[in-house]
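tool_call predict_complex ligand=flavin-adenine dinucleotide
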Amino acid sequence: MTRHLKMDEPATNRLLDKLPSRLTGAPMDRPDGPLKVSGTATYAHEWQLDGKVFGVLARAPVSKGKLVRIDKSAIENLPGVLGVFSEERFLRNPAQGMANEAPEQGVSEISYFGQPIALVVAETFEQARHGAHRLELVCEAASDGVFDPEANNIAPEKPEDDQLDQGDLDKAMAEAAYTVDSTYRTPSHNSAAMEPHCAIASWEGDQLTLYASYQMIKFNVNELADSVGIEPEKVRIVSPYVGGGFGSKLGIAPEAVSAAIAAKELGRPVCVTLTRQQVFENVMRRSESRQRLRLAADKDGKLTGLGHECRVSNLPGESFHEPVLQATHFIYGGDNRRLGMEVARLNRMCAGSVRAPGEAIGMQVLENAMDELAHTSGIDPVELRKRNIPDAHPEEGTPYSSRPFAEALDEGAKRFGWNKRNPKPGQQREGEWLIGMGMAAAARVNILMESKARVILKEDGKAIVETDMTDIGTGTYAILTQVCADMLGLEPENIETRLGDSNFPKASGSGGSFGAASSGSSVYLACLDIRAELARRLGCEESELQLDSGQARGGSKSGSLTGLLAGEAIEAEGHIEPGETKEKVKQATYGSYFAEVAVNAVTGETRVRRMLGVFGAGRILNRKTATSQCYGGMTWGIGMALHEAMEFDMRDGHVVNNDLAEYHIPVNLDVPQLDVVLLEERDDWASPIQAKGLGELGLCGAGAAITNAIFNATGVRVYDYPATLDKILDGLPELDMV
Amino acid sequence: MRPFDYHRSENAGDAVKAAAGDGALFIAGGTNLLDLMKLDLMTPSRLVDINRIGLNDVTQTEEGGLSIGALVTNSDCAADARIRKDYEVLSRAILAGASGQLRNKATTGGNLCQRTRCYYFYDPDMACNKRKPGSGCSAIGGANRIHAILGASDECIATYPGDMAVAMSALDAEVVIEGEGGETRTIPVRDFHRLPGDRPDQDNILEPGELITHVTLPAPAKGRHIYRKVRDRASYAFALVSVAAIVEMDAGRIASASLAFGGLAHKPWHDPAIEDLLTGEAPSEALFDKAADILLADAKGQGQNDFKIPLARRTLKAVLREATGERS
Ligand SMILES: Cc1cc2nc3c(=O)[nH]c(=O)nc-3n(C[C@H](O)[C@H](O)[C@H](O)COP(=O)(O)OP(=O)(O)OC[C@H]3O[C@@H](n4cnc5c(N)ncnc54)[C@H](O)[C@@H]3O)c2cc1C
Ligand code: SF4
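tool_result ok
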């Protein structure tokens, strides 16, 4: 049995609000929590396979050039070394999210410093690493490597599908009562997931099994098969637990393909785990950006023009570019618009999806510019944003689906005590500290993806949910269990949710915040089918069926679930597909951030004192895991505002701060009490369960609330992220005044 | 990591004997050495484990000071009641460093010997005179935001990254060192670390195989103890600039001042001219400015770290204000 739904019409039925069991939305603990805290959830590196050996990748020591030869003589006789592998099937870099095919392959052409060129396999990890260090890679360096995205001699590409010229922005700027014209820069970021990337490849005949840490299994199977040169049917990927992804585990990556190639040759399972330094050097980075923002407003602060032009970068040949403009298109009005995208081709590691690609930095900078406009025009920043909420999509004219944007702004302002803020910068002092408040809006596109799940209602009245969906720490195990529990009237203890195995029905995977709503919808649909069958057996209308604690009722009929099952399991597959609702309305998620900071008037050090986020993302499937996602997003926002930056050596494009001692993310002491408010919302256009994506929303503008607060505290506007003390120092009061 | 021999010593005498000869290194907490070995940056042929040689208490000296065994952990040292009371600057400096987990492992001897955090030193494919003499210095003209503004050379612009030694320098502590034959020598902490000059591979004056056995603190110095560390995040980051200060006031004048600086040079920076200037004077902004002038007279930025010059000035002045009680 299969229940298929293409989202062509809004789902106004809202069945989940009518069921006797109302677990969906409740802050249920993760079923996988105890396994994780007791160390018994098996992560990729931990699969114990007989005969497992270890591989370590060796890096290209030049930024651009050719591999001439590999001199193995120094390592051939090292104890434990089993082989050195290097060939044209090796991946240059990970596949982009949903590529569904092999990324750029080959080792003879070197495109960036640190590109994986060879794999040394040995009996132990230490032996393999020793071999990788000793291996001599003879390379010919080219002299025309490009490392600086803003170098004068670069002719950037302009992707056609990411340009907009509407009306006359120059004229709007010239005629405006208030204008902003500012250029901001944001640095590259690494996802910095706690679990380093790891894959264990194991062959049985021509059948390849990969135990690995990936976010999107159905795509990864095809990418791996295409890379290795075998049929997808011959590939199984097992990835039940992922220790953080943040986009860095979307596409198949060098460790998996090299492990598969070596394992085939050696006839033993090969485990390849990246070191932290390799995670920084080989995994996707978020592109740095240069963003020019132009705002033109009338005397009431209403936008008449909006310009957002940016430059990002990537390796030659990569189709992905950081979608910086994504939310700028729809969040605010303004008839005259110019949005432009340029991509510089660099010899630096691949750029790809990292934590809320696009909005994370696009919203951050747009919201800084809005703060500048508020300051110039003297209009309160909250009020300014409310005045610019458009009635219809300012470029496409389409209406919006549910949009609690104004509500999030008002609710946040009220809870935070925004009215106590002095709009004049630099006015509040506590000893050495300058105190300020800032706010920003949150917005993120909403996406629904095709997704399938199987639900088996067993003869004993317990259920199994199976889908190749992943849980990357987000709470998938919890929410799928909750949806199933409500739909079938079961206790969550009686449901086993199985994820992350390509033998299961193909899900959306985790990415773009679409995982929960998409996979949740597929489970919902499968359960609908089971409910239909139960109604049939009970002899009532499907719409009358009530399932509660193992009992079924409908019309005048009732019976126990096990009785209806009569010793036979019911199995159903749910299948959701995006449809016309995505064109009929603009779907997005919204919110607001408020932050209070203290900036040290002597040193320029910034400490966030408190921070609030108010978010609307449709139906919330689990208040606890959803809140945790928002905590995470806001914490990244603190990091993006104050700490995080990949630093590159501009002479060869290699990343210099390649460990977690020098690549700074916020530590406990940097993160104050965070408050998260989730608005009650249903979006019928988004999915049959009225849920939208939430995972990344907590980050989409968060950093701007902090840097806007720094401006309010000090009068210093930071145009070059992150706002480390050296960027603030010059603007601080003379020391004698401190 | 290369294969290496491992020897565990039960006493200091055995340890120095075991470490004699080429390529041996002591391992204490291992929090720095193991990282460097994993990356193939330090390649000892033999590790001499000194974790069981004793030397893990803090004892009273005849001169009224304290003797800290080389194996006393950073956590224990910072928590010692006598150190917290009489050598507050040391306790504060240690607690400003690393993380709780690291401080539980890190030892007094190992902390003194911790190596620079220069990015290029940590990358085996980069030229680095400290790691490979004569290969060049990649930090000059490269990423050098965390590098030295004082006492650097054309060969190396790295900093000594630690906190504990900066406080020890302000306290004028001494390092007790034992050689292969069991003979000992005592060196002021202020002379323990070196400037890079043309031998950046040598961080300090230890000869190969020499063991730090103790750090001796003189009798307690009276006055206010301050350790101020300026860094890129609230915790778990190395100092961009740090100031250790012990200042005693008498009738509105500075009776004595002892100051040392971290994050600025290849060693904890100590300049007696600053102390001479301050002693006997009444605190004032002008005086503090002069102190900063002396400190920074020869300061030279490398581009990305130019900000350390004004930052050091501002931090020193703020510390002096706090220490002299002008502001509380
Ligand atoms: C992420 C991170 C952050 C850190 N942050 C800070 C910080 O903010 N501030 C700070 O001060 N430190 C910081 N540290 C450094 C930490 O304090 C040092 O790693 C630690 O003090 C070293 O002590 P250990 O006992 O582990 O030394 P080991 O790693 O065992 O040894 C270090 C070196 O000292 C030698 N050695 C050890 N004991 C002796 C002895 N008795 N005699 C002679 N030689 C000896 C060893 O041979 C080796 O060369 C940080 C470290 C890390 C990893
Ligand atoms: S500054 Fe010193 S440690 Fe750093 S690269 Fe130069 S020589 Fe090496």
